[in-house]
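User: For a benchmark we're assembling, each entry needs the component sequences followed by a predicted structure for the full assembly. Here are entry 17's components. Please fill in the structure.
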Amino acid sequence: MEISRHWRLKRQRYALVGEVCPHCQKKIFPPRDICPECSEDARTLYQFSGRGEVYSYTTVYQAPAGYEEYAPYTVALVKLEEGPMLTAQLTDLGDEPVEVGMPVEMVTRKLRSDGEKGMLVYSYKFRPRLKEAVR
Amino acid sequence: MTMAKDAETPKDVYVIGVGMTPVGEHWEKSLRELALDAITALRMDGVWVRPQALYVANMLAPYLSGQTQLAALLADFAGLRGIEAITIEAAGASGGAAARQAYLAITSGMIDVALIIGVEKVSERTSAELEAALSTSSDADHEAVHGITPTAQAALLMRRYLLEFNVPDDAFAGFSLNAHANAVTNPQAIYRRAIQVENYLNAPMVSEPVNLFDAAPLADGAAALLMARSDALPENVPYPTVRIAASSIVSNAVALHDRSDPLLLDSVVESSAQALQQAGLNPGDIDLFELHDCYSIFAALSLEAAGFAARGEGWKLALDGIIAKDGEIPICTFGGSKARGDTGGATGVYQLAEITLQLQDRAGENQVQGAKIGMAQCLAASGATAATHIFSRVDGP
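Assistant: Structure for entry 17:
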């Protein structure tokens, strides 16, 4: 179940809230409290825009336990426009072929459900950036 | 660091025996029986000295066999009840990590003789259970939760590599061909058959662009290594002496996305450099290199990061037989993880047993002629941990 585990991460998972280092200004996602760049304390919250581009992608066919019903699904490394990279699923792909460098934007979607009485795990996923949202 | 350079100081550590089980689907063997088979093979191989410590390399027993305290269990099962025994877990680098612990214990003077066992039992679980267990080596909160697997991570790196370095789609075929060719004559290998480039080109995709022949098969197996300090060395070791010339472990960000350049294996750069410095060697001095080849992309990235190839050019070593056993830098001389078989946390111990056989001129048809210095390197998942060892043959008394 791990309810508190997912609850603790809700701000980053649902809203892409990370941190910015007050010492070297590095933007940090996922939040980690110690700046990976300068090793100083970094707890200032930072709201990421949710815009980025695909650094690389692939398809998972042989899914881990808990994810079998969603396979095949597309996973990617997404480079956020503020700098950090993250791992996420791509969604709402339709017929559009995925490409390295493709602009994407964050949406909140269900990751998995742990059975009828279990919890639903939601998270950020990324979709091709909508035309009107392209800046 | 400088201490290890003194050739024959009392703190030198030697290998006095190795043992391996065949890698495969051992339906008839349990985790502990596999481990015991490796110890039995070791005892029959050379000389046996009762170890004061046992370091067990294992990644998956807590998930797949419901077993923690594996080292205590194995010590008892092997007739060593009462000795110091701990399990060392560093995912795919567990084998090298256990060897490192044995090396530290022996060089500290606290332990004279240490036994390392790498063991993994995977064959009684479904592929979904295995994928879930393997995925624990990534960042659980920020990688595994998104349904990503080690295979998918290798695919992310391979796609980016193909694009960034403008490499042909079949660039990695040579790694798979070399591994399979070498496994033909390895009695411990799971796949003892050669493959042709057509087999590679027509292989089904596992996670594009990783195909079936880019990915190593996960299977059961156990390997053991007995190490002793020079002043505790038995006199009747029947084989040329193999000295541990270097031992290094380096960590990196666990999450692939937390690395500034995912295609540069920083841990391999640093660990290889440390090991070469300890041994006072250059990459050109290495006669064979047992590297991490769970996915063929890692063979290329490891060759680059360890200093054997320029960035973006590691794949070129798989052309023209440079990595073959009679080439300039032989790799996977017994088939590597690709064809000997991937035994998870035990892989690093197989590698060390294999370079020992090579340096003792006991590799049979897999022999690298005149091999005096061997390097073995195992990685956790995509390089969050790199464990590097250099063994050297010591001739004469």
